Amino acid sequence: MNNKPVILFDGVCNLCSGSVQFILKRDKEKRFLFASLQSTYGQSLLKQLDLPTELYEGGKVFTRSTAALKMFSQLKGWSWVKIFWVVPKFIRDAVYNLIAKNRYKWFGKKEECWLPTPDLKARFLD
């Protein structure tokens, strides 16, 4: 298996799909791979680890705000987000959970998962 970090995302969530597209545009080094939670890979990994997750990297699972900070801090021009590491995890996760709980209401939901273009397909695990 590839050693690149894998970002798991809700493929029907507009916010989540938009975040993936945001990361794809800025991840010029192609550091990340992606898998929707609805994909075979995503479901298999969730079952194997017995927990919801957002980032799987180097055999470790990162969740909620930690996953988000880890992802964004690796994007060119976004290292400034590292400042948020000083915010206690319980506060970061409370904000993350509030957004996650309301993501469909605030940002909407698709009927089907967003599909990458053919040139981006290699960055997605199924």
Specify the structural class: alpha+beta
How many structurally independent domains?
Answer: 1
Uncertain segments: none
Number of strands: 4
Major sheet summary line: 4 strands, mixed
Order of helices and strands: EHEHEEHH
Specify the oligomeric state.
Answer: single chain
Q: Helical amount among residues, as a percent range?
A: 40-55%
Strand order of the largest sheet: 2-1-3-4
Question: What form results from the Cα inertia axes?
Answer: globular
Strand content: 5-15%
Summed up, the helix count is 4
Instruction: State the end-to-end CA separation.
Output: 13 Å
What integer is the average pLDDT? 88
Q: Any idea what the radius of gyration is?
A: 14 Å
Molecular structure report:
The chain is of the alpha+beta class and 126 residues long. The chain has one domain (6-123). It is built from four helices and four strands; from the N terminus they run βαβαββαα. The protein has helices at 14-26, 40-49, 64-73, 89-107; strands spanning 6-9, 33-36, 55-57, 60-62. The chain has a four-stranded mixed sheet with strand order 2-1-3-4. β3 (55-57) and β4 (60-62) form a beta hairpin. The longest helix is centred in the C-terminal third of the chain and has 19 residues, at 89-107. The chain is globular, with a radius of gyration of 14 Å. The two termini are 13 Å apart.
